[in-house]
């Protein structure tokens, strides 16, 4: 909690398994970075316990928590070479001061040799061994990010903390570095907590993802389950690109009546017990089909509707269609093999096995 009663993180309870890659994801200001900084010891937790390897660390200084942090802005020392940037933390932790080294020359020599071996091993792992004598200003963004990773890896900590480490990279390099981080985690097996606002990074990298909003944990589960079974309307709308379509409506005689959208609920659907109640109907763009194309789902009055194609984005493998269903906008991901002309009206269909219903009052998913 910060001044004037602002709760940046509110009753966050999260258990992360040994060796797990956990991603904290959410919009700016949701509390994910504050949670990471509390774990690192850079922010004070005003209540509750923080434990690492079953040891309470609330009162343990950051330097003694055996964690390594990778920052968004790399935080490299501009006057030091790549080699010295990577080695700096090890030298501080393992080598005594100048006079200690003078009086313990044999021991200092052995420690220096060990540091040198670990730096070069880490550089080789990250494919930056040829850059060890360069200064940060002589490196590209991707190379600087590898140096920042190397500085964390070389310490062999219990936990890696990564605060949006890819956000300063261009799109192509971000995808490449994402894959490298996954391979590194598989090789090192160190518990990693990764913060991002990018739901694509969360879905592709995390073994589990924790979705946060307004300081509260909304859902924590495997990425596919979060995507397919969102706990509430916020999670459903935040995870997925393009985002899920939402239409406000009511349950009536086994149908979702949502303005120009009318959908028949399948037998046994949990929302059938909400007769007369306000709900939010949700459908992902990829679960809307051009009903007059080569459709892989049953098409009937129960799941079809007419819409005008307002805008079409051709992306090669798929088309993103912006539809108008009466005055209700919707987005569909369509097969380019069965095109629909912009400005025309066509029939579309929902996959009834993939619809989502949320309570109208609190947005919680109906299960």
Give the mean pLDDT.
92
Q: What is the H-and-E element order?
A: EHEEEHHHHEHEHEEHHEEEEEEEEEE
Count of alpha and pi helical runs: 9
**Number of spatially distinct domains:** 2
Q: Which sequence of strands runs across the widest sheet?
A: 4-5-6-1-7-8
* Estimated helix fraction: 25-40%
- What sort of overall outline do the alpha carbons produce when their principal axes are compared? elongated
Would you report the number of β strands?
A: 18
Question: Which quaternary structure do these chains form?
Answer: single chain
- How far apart the termini lie comes to 34 Å
What summary fits the major beta sheet?
A: 6 strands, mixed
Rg: 26 Å
CATH structural class of the largest domain = Alpha Beta
| Uncertain segments | none
Q: What portion of the residues fall into strands of 2 or more residues? A: 25-35%
The CATH fourth-level homologous superfamily of the largest domain: P-loop containing nucleotide triphosphate hydrolases
Judged by helices, strands and strand pairing, the structural class is alpha+beta
According to CATH, the fold-level topology of the largest domain is Rossmann fold
């Amino acid at each position: 909690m910060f001044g004037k009663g602002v709760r940046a993180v509110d009753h966050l309870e999260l258990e992360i398994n040994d060796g797990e890659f956990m991603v904290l994801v959410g919009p700016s200001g949701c509390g994910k970075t504050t949670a990471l900084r509390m774990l690192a010891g850079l922010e004070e937790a005003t209540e509750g316990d923080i434990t690492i390897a079953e040891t309470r660390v609330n009162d343990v200084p950051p330097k003694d928590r055996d964690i390594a942090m990778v920052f968004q802005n790399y935080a490299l020392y501009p006057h030091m070479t790549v080699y010295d940037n990577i080695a700096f933390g090890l030298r501080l932790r393992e080598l005594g001061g100048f006079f200690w080294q003078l009086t313990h020359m044999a021991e200092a020599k052995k420690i220096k040799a060990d540091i040198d071996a670990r730096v070069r091993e880490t550089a080789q792992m990250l494919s930056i061994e040829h850059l060890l004598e360069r200064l940060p200003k002589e490196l590209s963004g991707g190379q600087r990010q590898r140096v920042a990773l190397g500085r964390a890896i070389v310490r062999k900590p219990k936990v890696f903390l990564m605060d949006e480490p890819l956000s300063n990279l261009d799109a192509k390099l971000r995808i490449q570095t994402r894959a490298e981080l996954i391979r590194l985690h598989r090789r090192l097996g160190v518990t990693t907590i990764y913060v991002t606002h990018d739901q694509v990074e969360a879905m592709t990298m995390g073994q589990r993802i924790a979705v946060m909003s307004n300081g509260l944990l909304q859902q924590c589960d495997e990425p596919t389950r979060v995507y397919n079974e969102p706990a509430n309307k916020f999670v459903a709308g935040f995870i997925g690109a393009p985002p899920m379509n939402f239409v406000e409506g009511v349950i009536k005689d086994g149908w979702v009546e949502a303005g120009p959208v009318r959908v028949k609920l399948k037998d046994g659907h949990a929302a059938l017990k909400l007769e007369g109640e306000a709900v939010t109907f949700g459908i992902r763009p990829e679960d809307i089909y051009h009903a007059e194309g080569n459709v892989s789902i049953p098409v009937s009055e129960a799941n079809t509707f007419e819409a005008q194609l307002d805008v079409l984005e051709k992306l090669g493998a798929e088309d993103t269609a912006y539809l108008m269903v009466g005055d209700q906008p919707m987005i569909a991901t369509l097969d380019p093999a069965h095109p629909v002309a912009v400005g025309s009206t066509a029939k579309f269909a929902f996959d009834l096995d993939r619809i989502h219903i949320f309570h109208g009052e609190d947005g919680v998913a109906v299960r």
